């Protein structure tokens, strides 16, 4: 115990001198320090929110292989998803942030804005070859703060058997979607399930409709946005979707689909493993329909980025950056994408990936044009997202029309 | 005689009916824990096609956590009662202008949202090295146990005639000895009630478990349940099964404690 | 009190009997008395005093996401308070908090008292049934709210299925989906959670009333309702007032249940001060504003506490 404390004191003394040294020579020879002192780093701490199998152990495998490549041991901590930020804040205030930190991509800019993260460009990483949307999400003030090996998005799942029985083809436009949903609705079954709850999740599910129609978070009172909201309202008011969508999570939507109580659902590929557990439900995926033919479907980019919190210990910081680099290697991107039904973020890998995993074709196509949530508003995105989900709630409960809902929700 | 037997039988029937209504959600949870998909949407009233997959998983993964929860809850009961009982006695029997100030402080303490306490304790624990420790969680859980126990015990002890203790004092016993020898046995019922609630508070605590642990070592079962609710994957049958399992040891304890309460009441503690 | 009531405490309150034996033991005894309360005082300061002070300071600062990383939290005076009070949702959150608190407590208490009186009559299996009644309490709230959400589900929930099945309602009730019903449903679930607490405390209160009082009352013709009114209720008052007080204090800050069932929705119909405070702190990361709201919450409870203490002191004085 005592010796540990002494080591800690010594360590902090040395880091101080390192910082001073770094200040002196302006950090110009970053490469040199990393190679000479890199070998002294024996372990890295990691924090992420893949707290549940199979994700937890699949991610562990990737982490382990990078650890052995870099010759370090890792101490990994996983926390439930919605408590990650709280944990990060606690650790930040007590100066105990991990060496490598996973963040959901829309959170990266907010955390980077606090100055807690190390710019990865200075540490030999770059976003070259990565889907633009993801680079947007993980950059702040022109600097790269995180890299995501894999991404995901949402699209329209449909129950092949139900569509076949009803003689309905997978919808391509909103009109077709509404008609299909109506035809597929029967006693005890809704045409479509989606999530419109009062959380960021509800806002995220609304984005394919909003963006595809040309709506934009920088002007939420535009007619394009209102039209998209009208689609949600029409689906619910015609009885094609349950009124409960305002409380459903994406998990609930999946439960409805699996239970045969919804013929279609808006959801992401992360549900595939659990869909595979009920093999009697046969399904396919199409891109989210467009309002008018000719529009390009634009969906939001999901997925988590790996970042490096600022560290006074330069060698450790460099090692952590190397670790993130390793996680984003081609092999690792492909391995994680295959195992976890996600999509690699490097455009060069997409064709190969679709060849190897044909069931991910639609999602992969959608990812090519997908946008990040924070691409335009940066760390102001959460405020816009809040307006979006509150407007959806107002419109779906009949408290405001689709036209007025956004004005009301933004306090106007 | 037979008439009253019948009437008591009727009471039992009514009691069972009341319980059925009150516990329906619990039953529904058990039902869900046995459903193959772990989702209640397709569930009928009975689990006709039960699967124990959720239970197998819960048992193998949550066994240690149940023990941890048990230790923490028991520790909370002991520490809370040890600290609260003398204080409750003082607040009920000693005459001092500080009494109402003390009461006010206790009441205020109950108004403070748990998250405020948890955040403050986190920083303190970090310095004291109490994070990720069973004693740390016991102390934190006492924040619900102690004030509650003081209030409950005091409201019962108010009715103790001071002459009881005075008689013993005349015989030469010190204040503390009189307290242990006379006040404690008489207060058995309320001690059990206060202990019971301290136990329940601690057993069902989630907030402190979440904020005051940072790694896997010490993990109460409520946190274990939460681990099944991933960002992207949810295992409802494992969640429900763990909840059912976590209820079992606590029920056993509650039923055992109730016997004491009944026995105490029949004995007529205050003569 | 106009009517003479039979209570246990009447004979006990007299001139302070301790005075007789004072004198040489005086100083040592004061020390002992201090030792009775000292551990509790220390615990209270550590577990509550410190957090409260921290929270008060935070509410006067611009305490945001950045603060955690840089330690910077500029003082802003009362700005956080004016921000939260002038917010559109504040008045609705106040009304919802009041409805939620009053509705929950009234029903919890009345139902709890009814059940406690029922179980007080001894009958076979009574004790076991009563312990099982505590079960709802044992369930982690996250599990309870998930279960209730599936029960209250508008289309396939078992409650609507049952009610339509037996012909009580024609159309499914949108329990959690309509802004006009959701608050009632949330209160209902909270009542369910609170009943065990009320039953147990009131039952222990009843158990402490000596049977002799009832025997004596019987001679005076006090049975049934009269026995309840002249014997049970006066003797239960101390427990009941603690219980109601705690009820207010606990209910006003309820958070998990609402978050689990509706997340404050639909369309903010179930937002309370507690959910708003949570949202500001942990969704918006404006911890200063969140702290200001929770201090407002604490202040409201505080007013109740003062009322409670005054009423109990009056009761003691009588």
TrEMBL record, chain A:
Show the PROSITE patterns listed in the entry.
PROKAR_LIPOPROTEIN
The record ties this protein, via SUPFAM superfamilies, to: Periplasmic binding protein-like II (SSF53850)
Write one Gene Ontology MF term. maltose binding
Keyword Transport attached:
yes
Tree of life domain: Bacteria
Q: Which GO terms describe its cellular component?
A: ATP-binding cassette (ABC) transporter complex, substrate-binding subunit-containing
The record's listing under InterPro entries reads:
SBP
One GO biological process this protein is involved in is: maltose transport
Question: Secretion signal: which residues?
Answer: 1-21
Going by the UniProt record, its keywords in alphabetical order are: Signal, Transport
Q: Per the record, a Pfam family?
A: SBP_bac_8
Family per record: Belongs to the bacterial solute-binding protein 1 family.
| Official protein name in the record | ABC transporter substrate-binding protein
TrEMBL record, chain B:
Q: Does the keyword Cell membrane apply?
A: yes
Residue span, ABC transmembrane type-1 domain: 66-257
Entries under CDD domains matching the protein: TM_PBP2 (cd06261)
Q: Where mainly found?
A: membrane
Q: What sections of the protein cross the membrane?
A: 12-30, 66-91, 98-122, 134-153, 174-201, 236-257
Keyword annotations:
Cell membrane, Membrane, Transmembrane, Transmembrane helix, Transport
GO BP field = transmembrane transport
Its subcellular locations are: Cell membrane
One Pfam family from the UniProt entry?
BPD_transp_1
Q: Does the keyword Membrane apply?
A: yes
Report the protein name in the record: Carbohydrate ABC transporter permease
From TrEMBL, chain C:
Species per Swiss-Prot/TrEMBL record: Kribbella turkmenica
Domain named ABC transmembrane type-1: which ranges? Answer: 94-308
Topology class, membrane: Multi-pass membrane protein
Give the record's keywords alphabetically: Cell membrane, Membrane, Transmembrane, Transmembrane helix, Transport
Instruction: Give the start-end ranges of region Disordered.
Output: 1-26
Family matches, as PANTHER family? BLR7065 PROTEIN, SPERMIDINE_PUTRESCINE TRANSPORT SYSTEM PERMEASE PROTEIN
Q: What is this protein called?
A: Sugar ABC transporter permease
Question: In which compartments does the protein localize?
Answer: Cell membrane
Q: Which InterPro entries does this entry report, sorted A to Z?
A: MetI-like (IPR000515), MetI-like_sf (IPR035906)
Residues crossing the lipid bilayer are: 34-53, 98-119, 131-151, 181-206, 227-252, 290-309
Q: Where are the compositionally biased (Polar residues) regions?
A: 1-12
| A Pfam family matched in the record | BPD_transp_1
Q: From its record, what is one biological process in GO terms?
A: transmembrane transport
């Amino acid at each position: 115990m005592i010796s540990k404390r002494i080591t800690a004191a010594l360590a902090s003394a040395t880091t101080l001198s390192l910082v001073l040294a770094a200040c002196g020579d302006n950090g110009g020879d970053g490469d040199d320090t990393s190679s000479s002192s890199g070998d002294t780093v024996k372990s890295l701490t990691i924090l992420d929110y893949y707290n549940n199998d199979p994700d937890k152990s699949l991610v562990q495998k990737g982490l382990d292989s990078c650890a052995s490549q870099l010759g370090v041991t890792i101490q990994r901590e996983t926390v439930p998803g919605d408590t990650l930020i709280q944990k990060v804040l606690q650790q930040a205030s007590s100066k105990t942030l991990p060496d490598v930190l996973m963040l959901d991509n829309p959170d990266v800019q907010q955390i980077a804005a606090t100055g807690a993260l190390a710019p990865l460009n200075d540490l030999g990483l770059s976003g070259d070859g990565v889907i633009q949307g993801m680079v947007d999400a993980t950059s702040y003030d022109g600097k790269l703060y995180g890299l995501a090996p894999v991404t995901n998005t949402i699209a329209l799942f449909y129950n092949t058997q139900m569509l076949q029985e009803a003689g309905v083809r997978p919808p391509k436009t909103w009109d077709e979607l509404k008609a299909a949903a109506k035809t597929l609705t029967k006693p005890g079954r809704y045409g479509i399930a989606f999530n419109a709850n009062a959380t960021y999740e509800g806002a995220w599910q609304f984005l394919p409709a909003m963006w595809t129609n040309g709506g934009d978070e920088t002007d939420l009172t535009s007619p394009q946005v209102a039209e998209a909201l009208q689609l949600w309202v029409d689906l619910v008011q015609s009885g094609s979707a349950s009124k409960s969508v305002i409380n459903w999570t994406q998990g609930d939507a999946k439960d409805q689909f699996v239970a045969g109580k919804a013929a279609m659902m808006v959801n992401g590929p992360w549900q595939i493993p659990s869909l595979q557990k009920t093999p009697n439900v046969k399904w396919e995926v199409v891109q989210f329909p467009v309002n008018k033919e000719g529009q390009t479907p634009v969906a939001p980019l999901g997925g988590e980025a790996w970042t490096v919190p600022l560290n006074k210990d330069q060698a450790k910081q460099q090692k952590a950056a190397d670790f993130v680099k390793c996680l984003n290697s081609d092999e690792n991107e492909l391995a994680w994408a295959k195992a976890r039904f996600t999509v690699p973020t490097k455009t060069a890998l997409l064709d190969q990936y679709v060849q190897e995993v044909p069931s991910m074709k639609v999602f992969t196509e959608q990812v090519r044009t997908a946008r990040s949530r924070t691409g335009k508003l940066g760390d102001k995105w959460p405020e816009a997202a809040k307006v979006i989900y509150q407007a959806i709630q107002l419109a779906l409960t009949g408290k405001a029309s689709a036209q007025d809902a956004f004005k009301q929700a933004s306090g106007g | 005689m037979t008439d009253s037997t019948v009437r008591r039988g009727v009471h039992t029937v009514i009691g069972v009916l009341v319980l059925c209504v009150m516990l329906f959600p619990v039953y529904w949870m058990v039902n869900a824990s046995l459903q193959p998909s772990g989702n209640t949407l397709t569930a009928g009233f009975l689990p006709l096609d039960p699967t124990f997959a959720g239970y197998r998983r819960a048992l193998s993964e949550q066994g240690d956590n149940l023990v941890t929860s048990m230790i923490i809850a028991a520790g909370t009961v002991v520490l809370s009662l040890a600290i609260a009982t003398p204080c409750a006695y003082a607040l009920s029997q000693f005459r001092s202008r500080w009494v109402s100030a003390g009461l006010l402080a206790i009441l205020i303490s109950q108004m403070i949202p748990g998250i405020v306490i948890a955040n403050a304790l986190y920083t303190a624990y970090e310095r004291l090295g109490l994070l990720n420790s069973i004693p740390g969680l016991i102390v934190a859980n006492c924040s619900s146990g102690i004030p509650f126990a003081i209030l409950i015990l005091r409201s019962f002890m108010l009715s103790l005639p001071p002459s009881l203790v005075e008689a013993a004092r005349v015989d030469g016993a010190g204040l503390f000895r009189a307290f242990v020898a006379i006040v404690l046995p008489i207060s058995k019922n309320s001690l059990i009630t206060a202990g019971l609630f301290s136990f329940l508070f601690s057993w069902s605590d989630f907030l402190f478990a979440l904020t005051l642990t940072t790694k896997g070592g010490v993990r109460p079962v409520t946190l274990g349940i939460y681990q099944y609710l991933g960002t992207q994957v949810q295992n409802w049958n494992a969640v429900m099964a763990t909840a059912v399992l976590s209820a079992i040891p606590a029920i056993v304890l509650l039923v055992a404690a109730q016997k004491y309460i009944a026995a105490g009441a029949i004995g007529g503690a205050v003569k | 009190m106009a009517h003479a009531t039979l209570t246990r405490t009447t004979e006990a309150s007299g001139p302070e009997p301790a005075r007789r034996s004072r004198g040489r033991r005086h100083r040592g005894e004061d020390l002992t008395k201090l030792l009775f309360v000292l551990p509790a005082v220390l615990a209270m300061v550590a577990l509550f005093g410190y957090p409260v002070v921290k929270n008060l300071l935070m509410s006067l600062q611009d305490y945001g996401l950045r603060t955690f990383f840089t330690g910077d939290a500029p003082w802003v005076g009362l700005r956080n308070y004016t921000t939260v009070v002038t917010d559109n949702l504040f008045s609705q959150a106040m009304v919802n908090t009041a409805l939620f608190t009053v509705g929950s407590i009234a029903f919890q208490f009345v139902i709890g008292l009814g059940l406690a009186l029922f179980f007080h009559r001894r009958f076979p299996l009574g004790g076991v049934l009563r312990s099982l009644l505590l079960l709802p309490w044992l369930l982690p709230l996250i599990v309870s709210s998930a279960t209730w959400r599936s029960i209250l589900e508008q289309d396939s929930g078992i409650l609507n299925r049952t009610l339509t099945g037996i012909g009580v309602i024609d159309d499914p009730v949108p329990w959690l989906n309509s802004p006009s019903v959701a608050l009632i449903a949330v209160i209902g679930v909270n009542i369910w959670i609170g009943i065990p607490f009320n039953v147990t405390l009131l039952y222990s209160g009843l158990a402490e009333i000596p049977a002799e009082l009832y025997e004596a009352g019987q001679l005076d013709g006090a049975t049934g309702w009269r026995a309840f009114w002249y014997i049970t209720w006066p003797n239960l008052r101390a427990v009941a007032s603690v219980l109601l007080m705690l009820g207010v204090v606990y209910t006003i800050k309820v958070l998990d249940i609402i978050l689990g069932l509706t997340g404050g929705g639909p369309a903010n119909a179930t937002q309370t001060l507690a959910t708003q405070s949570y949202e500001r702190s942990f969704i918006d990361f404006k911890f200063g504003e969140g702290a200001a709201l929770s201090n407002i919450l604490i202040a409201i409870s505080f007013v109740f506490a003062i009322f409670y203490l005054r009423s109990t002191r009056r009761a003691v004085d009588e």
